[in-house]
Amino acid sequence: MTTRVIFNIDSKLKIQAMKKAQSEGLPFGAVLKLATKAFVEGVFDVGLVPKEGFNTATRKVVSKAFKDIKTGRNLSSRFATAKDAVAYLKS
């Protein structure tokens, strides 16, 4: 048996949540059901925890790495076998 839950939410937040759910291949209702189930099972903890992030030095290194990836710089080619990769590293 199922029941309907009705609550108010900011329309902009709802749109953002629906877009994110869609981008991950889930209906928004499924996200809400999964979150409710996780909350009941104690897996989903409601709390105000700051989002972890990189320190300044690490952020710069990671940012540069992403730029290199986008431009195709500082990347090795794909290898068919592990032996090929080891040979590349030894050269």
Distinctive features:
elongated, single chain
How would you characterize this protein structure?
There is one protein chain. By secondary structure, this protein is mainly α. The chain contains 4 helices and no strands. It has one domain (1-73).
Tell me the fraction of residues in β-strands, as a range. under 5%
Largest sheet: none
Number of contiguous helices: 4
What are the secondary-structure elements, in order, as H or E?
HHHH
Mean pLDDT: 90
- The helix content, as a percent range, equals 55-70%
How far do the termini sit from each other?
Answer: 65 Å
Radius of gyration: 22 Å
Number of strands: 0
Report the principal-axis shape: elongated
Indicate the structural class.
Answer: mainly alpha
